[in-house]
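Project channel, design review

CF: Before we commit to the Sporosarcina contaminans constructs, I'd like one complete example in the thread so the newer folks can see what an input/output pair looks like. Taking ABC transporter ATP-binding protein.
RD: sounds good, go ahead.
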Amino acid sequence: MEHIIDLQQVSFRRGEQQILKEIDWIIRQGEHWAILGLNGSGKTSLLSIVSAHQFPSEGEVHVLGNRFGETNLPELRKEIGFVSSSLERFSQMFQNDTVERVVVSGKFASFGLYEQPSVEDYRRVDELLQDFRLSYLKGKRVNLLSEGEKRRIMIARALMNRPQMLIMDEPCSGLDILSREQFLHTLSVVTKNGCHVIYVTHHIEEVVEEITHVLLLKEGEIVAAGEKNAVLTDEHLSQAYQVPVRVLWDEGRPYLTVNKMEALKRVEEEKNLKTV
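CF: and here is what came back for ABC transporter ATP-binding protein:
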């Protein structure tokens, strides 16, 4: 399978609102992508499609070699892991569970454990906890963990079924800088396990070394897509974020600053246009 994802002329509408417009996007073997864009740029709708939870209004979709309309989407979803800060709303279901029970529940894609795991399943749990340097949490209840530890446990849970693709939707939202860096370090474990990453964020400093490519969206259309060094430029990001910005690279990692003088100039120009 050469293409992990292949979208051809994909559009998505909700009622009269055009959310995605003629998206062409390919993820090849060995590539790991970040998706960037302002709120309302279409990131969530795009994730719903590639995670096999939503059909497009138009266009052709292939995910993990499966063509939408010719495949069983619930079965396809078993090949796709998903981690999001929004999953915190389900955390109450895990509060009284141990770390091992939470991780092993990923095999059954359930919030809570309603089936009997095998001895082999728990061996897999031990492997994941060791890979993520979380073995010290064995036996602990989830309600005793820090937010950063909970997020890393959720990644281990998502990898329980050895998915071919892992989607992360703003997974560092709400984490302090230490917890964020500890979380980002786990991406190397994910990629070494042969899992392809799609990482959605508002913050380009989260585009770490393991991320190879970037898709930049604006109002449902692609501004730029390709290798991260070619996409994360002042010009592309200023266009997508609608404010003049500069990109600074440090040890292979990008950081964003706002060009204050240009931003103020643009604000004044917009004020003058409104008063004319």
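RD: helpful, thanks. DSSP finds ten helices and twelve strands in the chain.
CF: Residues 85-162 form one domain.
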